[in-house]
Amino acid sequence: MKYVMLLSFSMAVMFVFIASSSFIFQDLYGLTPFVYSLYFAVNAFALAMGNVLSARFSTPEKAIKAGVSGLLSMGILTAWMLLANPGFIYAAVPMLLLLFSAGLTFPSSATLAIECERTYAGSASAVLGTMNFILGGLVTPLVGLGNILWSTAVVILICITLVTLLAISIFKKR
Question: What is the rounded CA–CA span in Å between residue 19 and residue 6?
Fold first, then answer.
């Protein structure tokens, strides 16, 4: 279940981006809808590249460790840039790298979660998918509470803290 939660909180970071980025980058940083759509597409590509590159690691555990390290460092930097509000590029680049890092964790944590319950792989897959969207549904409205920069930063920090604690608890036994 720890791999399921690790994946779900990593995916929650993606849902935070989806829920808040249009407000942050269009309303606060003044991007036009077209330029924002390009930025969104680049972020989607970064997430997909994280997924693809996770297969290049020698083990799924190494991909998860790299992804969690990136989530932690880029999550802290993203939150800091959102709170400091220095401008578009300073918030956009860490957020892009944050999504790339999340992408590194997705396939490997899903693989290991289902591997833990190989006998009931179908049920494990259903739980995995359900938890991802339940958590995504829970974090999405939280970014709209109060100042969007603050609420987005706080929700990202909570998610990456939980991802990091889960990774520590998973890998300390090995």
Answer: 20
Phi, psi dihedrals of residue 117, rounded to the nearest 5°: -125, 50
Query: What is the pTM assigned to this prediction?
Result: 0.91
**Could you identify the residue written with the tokens 């809808």?**
33
* Helix (H/G/I), strand (E/B), else coil: 174: coil
Write out the H or E segment, with its range, that includes residue 128: helix 121-139
Compute how many other C-beta atoms are within 10 angstroms of the C-beta atom of residue 85: 12
Describe the chain by its helix, strand, coil percentages, rounded to 5. 90, 0, 10
**pLDDT tens figures, 100-142:** 999 999 889 888 888 877 777 788 788 878 888 999 999 999 9
